[in-house]
Amino acid sequence: MKITAIESLQWPSYPRTLYVLVHTDEGLVGLGETVEKVPGSRGALHGTLAPLLLGQDAHDIEGLWRFLFDNILYHGYSGAELRALSAVEIALWDLLGKRYELPLYQLLGGKTRTRIPTYNTCIGFGANRDYTWWHEDAGGLARNLLDAGIWAMKIWPFDPYSERSLGQYISPDDLEHGLRPVRQIREAVGRAMEIGIECHFRWNRASAERIVRALEPYDILFLEDPLPAIHVDEIRLLSQKSPIPIVGSELLMTRWQLREWLEKHTSQILMTDPLWNGGVAETRKIAAMAEAFGVPLVLHNLSGPVCHAVCLHLGAHIPNLMFVESARALYGTFFATLAGNVLPPTQGYFALPTGPGHGVELRAEAMTQPDVVRHVSTGSGSAVGRRAMGDHWEREEIR
Question: Quick one: which of 14, 52, 192, 294 is 20 to 30 A from 129 by CA?
Answer without folding.
Answer: 192
